[in-house]
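Annual report, structural modelling task.

Input specification for the adenosine-5'-triphosphate complex:
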Amino acid sequence: MNPAESAGPDTQWMIRFDKVVKRYGDLTVLDELDFHVRPRERVTLIGPSGSGKTTILRLLMTLERITSGTIEVGGEYLSHTRRGDKLVPADEKHLRRVRKRIGMVFQQFNLFPNMNVLRNITEAPVRALGRPRAEAEAKARELLDMVGLGEKALEHPTRLSGGQQQRVAIARALAMEPEILLLDEVTSALDPELVAGVQDLLRDIASRGELTILCVTHEMQFAQDISDRVLMFDKGQIVEDGPPEKIFTEPEEQRTRDFLQAILKA
Amino acid sequence: MNWDWEWTREFSVELFTTGLKVTAQITVFGAIVAFIFGLLLALLRRSKILWVSTAARWFIQFVRSTPLLVQLFFLFYVLPTIPPNIKLSALTAGILGLGVHYACYTAEVYRAGIDGVPPGQFEAATALNLPQVRTWTSVILPQALRRSLPALGNVLVAIFKESPQLSIITVLDVIGTAQELGSERFRYLEPLTVAGLFFLVLAIPASIMIRRLERRLEY
Ligand SMILES: Nc1ncnc2c1ncn2[C@@H]1O[C@H](COP(=O)(O)OP(=O)(O)OP(=O)(O)O)[C@@H](O)[C@H]1O
Ligand SMILES: [Mg+2]
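The model returned the following structure:
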């Protein structure tokens, strides 16, 4: 079906994937993927390596371009705009507007090593949202207190532990006041003893229920704590979709059972 | 052949007042041209507009594949004879020639520096919705330049060492002056040795400092 013929944006959904195809050369990672996420829903994506979880988050963050199909965010097309009755690839201006609604935390933190912690957090609010610096700094300090790093505002990120860096990255993403937060294995690069601190912070953020969250994780307890819904992926398709208690204790699909078995053994 | 100390003392003054000034000018201004124009070339090379990046690549390739001497000749002797008959002073032509020549090396230095910035930095900047220009000025270039500093130091030393080539277009630096002095008496041992030592004395500590810098600059 030509995407232009579909019903068009729908505000009942925060995120809507419609027949999304993503290919890298000959490799089809997502094949006509459909799924919807409601506003403030907290969704965990699980599935074996290579099943396309990261790809989904990267498409949403506009770090990758979609091959075909459409993605809507908050009732707006993400990487298309309507011209007449056709959908055409969106320009940078459109992307910048939709991107404002989305924040992402990366596995490797990706803090800017050439700026101190405070500057890492204020740079985007000042440069992308045009906030006055004083206001941005006040907000950043609040966020730093929230993530338990009020003392570290003027430190350089490289002087912080991995767990502290990741908490700064979370504060940095929240400083942009996104509606959607994307979390891609945010604790898997951390030393084991630092995982709990970051997870506690995210539990706290998720429990406020203000954000729509898409989270990729292999930590089943954590997934259960922060999400209302789990999507099990395999080969770019959704295998199973349900509440965490159900998926983690009595999954219906054999592939989900196999995957959970494999995780437990690891 | 005996070393003439008397004469050495005499000419050293001239060597280091007139010659040194020219060498310093060539090195400093040549490096400024090389560093700024090189950055411009590096950015043009990354342009998404195909003809811009192709033109930049060809220019770099062309300049790197022809001898500096020919480029200097061209700027000083040929350029004034073809329309629009641009006539540069010997020093200006020399600084421009040397600067542009090394800009084509510096462009590669910057390119390596930019390539060395982890892709995650671009991705974080995109995720934070930083405008493109900001992404470059606040995030990518500061990290890329920092990575490039030691190699830029090496370019500076190279420009310093190549500055005597400008005597081919009548610019007399330390070496050129030494040669001139030598030709007055048909005796080159003292002036050329002193001039050569001067380069050695400056270039070696510079290289050592660059190596120190390399180690210190890791984040
Ligand atoms: N830039 C790229 N170029 C080519 N192939 C890619 C690229 N990025 C991802 N892929 C491929 O796409 C597939 C899906 O990758 P993706 O990173 O989305 O998987 P994932 O579910 O996040 O896996 P993991 O659990 O290992 O993180 C993989 O086969 C991967 O090799
Ligand atoms: Mg992944």
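Chain B is about 80% helix and 0% strand.
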